[in-house]
Amino acid sequence: MTDNGTAPHGAVLGGTAPPDGPLVELRGAGKSYGNIRALHGVDLQVRPGRVTCVLGDNGAGKSTLIKIISGLHQHTEGEFLVDGRPVRFGTPREALDLGIAAVYQDLATVPLMPVWRNFFLGSELTVGPWPIRRLDIARMKETADRELRHMGIVLDDLEQPIGTLSGGQRQCVAIARAVHFGARVLILDEPTAALGVKQSGVVLKYIAAARDRGLGVVFITHNPHHAYMVGDHFSVLRLGTLELSADRSEIGLEELTHHMAGGTELAALKHELAQVRGVDVEEMPEKEDLSAPVANSSEGNS
Length: 302
Ligand SMILES: Nc1ncnc2c1ncn2[C@@H]1O[C@H](COP(=O)(O)OP(=O)(O)O)[C@@H](O)[C@H]1O
Ligand SMILES: [Mg+2]
Known about the structure:
Elements: E1 24-33, E2 36-46, E3 51-56, H1 62-69, E4 77-82, E5 85-86, H2 92-97, E6 100-103, H3 115-119, E7 126-127, E8 134-135, H4 137-150, H5 167-180, E9 185-189, H6 197-212, E10 216-221, H7 224-230, E11 233-238, E12 241-247, H8 253-261, H9 263-273
Parallel strand pairs: 3-10, 3-11, 6-9, 9-10
Antiparallel strand pairs: 1-2, 1-4, 4-5, 7-8, 11-12
């Protein structure tokens, strides 16, 4: 899989997971913040080599769900299992030690540092014995270059500050980094939300690449088109509960879009707007068009 000679979490790759069993599983899981029940009765499975998409409107509970899996929050109801064993993480570090890595929208990078330094941020390689130990710059550059190429990411110059990369490229570096450091489960919180059409396509491509390397990917998005390009399973949250959980074979893009868009709510809005002068409701879509159609729609789903 990856070159684990240098990977601190590489040990987990051997894994004791039963073959074909889910890496991560939620059974009737929920979370309350004080009186606020943000999540309730959620079943979810993350399997190796598959992309599980979590969709839902703002406030639906997507972030709460992945914060439980990545160790930021603890569930307050139901079960949470990793490799079939119940777990309750105190910190993200504990999740990481089991190979669960999250990439958040506000990426934890240092914009002015070179790409290769950011790749190894917090896990720098060193050479030589104490007290003359120093950074092994050559090996870090070489490893970062190789790992990025493995994922199909070719950057002209790893010396350039990561802040000069596009948002899509930075997401890709973060994905390659997680793969290198031994992630088995990769959680991406709305990685395409702030991106344009072309850059979204690039990120979708690397989601597919991570899946093809055998990772279980959790892809959070509110764009059903993006989800459908790479997804194997779709879980739609509404007001903290699972509204839909379907495999790709069970649902088409149109139906998924309808679930996401709240078709009935839109019809009501259309009716109201029909009373307003100057609004041509005939021009309104039947369903809310959430698409940012990606240029090469075949790209992500190779
Ligand atoms: N730390 C928190 N304290 C209290 N309520 C929260 C907290 N985080 C989220 N919530 C509430 O939980 C619900 C789900 O939020 P969230 O998981 O962020 O949804 P999403 O990511 O789908 O937009 C919302 O009603 C939100 O206000
Ligand atoms: Mg969120």
